[in-house]
Amino acid sequence: MTLPGSYLSKKLLENFEELVATRPNDAQPGPDFFGLPWKPVLVTVFLGIVSFAIFFWRTILVVKDRIYQVTEQQISEKLKNIMKENEELVQNLSNHEQKIKESKKHVQETKKQNVILSDEAIKYKGKIKLLEETNEILDDRAKSLHVMLESEKRMSRIRT
């Protein structure tokens, strides 16, 4: 029973040996690498490259700050909350605009009533002035009639 990894490594080594064999004779490597056989050296180089790739992948390329890891569901919930708040604000704004319109209408009606009341007050002031003048005239006449009555009484006493 052979493992898939061992089969893969055998095939990789065979392909690498064929690649080395295709090089010109003056550039061919010797039977060993500074006293070590080529197979363990090549396996070590291959493992080093793989471990470097894994290290690079795990540390450099996958660096993500956890603050920015937000799910689509969280974004959609936040968007729904913002839309709900926006609707509430629009409703509040329309309510306030309606209240402002009603207040302006009430102010206009109050101004009209004030104008009408001030016109009536001017009319009544004129009537009051006229009545005061008439009252003074009537008071003067009442005094004169009283004086005449008193004089008539004296005259009638004198005659009797």
What does this protein look like?
This protein is mostly helical and about 160 residues long. The protein has a domain at about 5-65. Helices cover about 80% and strands about 0% of the residues. The protein has helices at about 5-20, 40-60, 70-160. It is rod-shaped and about 180 Å long.
Share of β-strand residues: under 5%
Could you state the order of secondary-structure elements as H and E?
Answer: HHH
Mean pLDDT, as a whole number? 84
Number of beta strands: 0
Rg result: 59 Å
The residue fraction in helices comes out at over 70%
**Overall morphology:** rod-shaped
Unreliable stretches: none
* Structural category: mainly alpha
Largest sheet: none
Distance between the termini: 171 Å
- How many helices does DSSP assign? 3
Structural key phrases:
160 residues, mainly alpha, coiled coil, single chain, transmembrane helix, 3 helices, NPIP_N
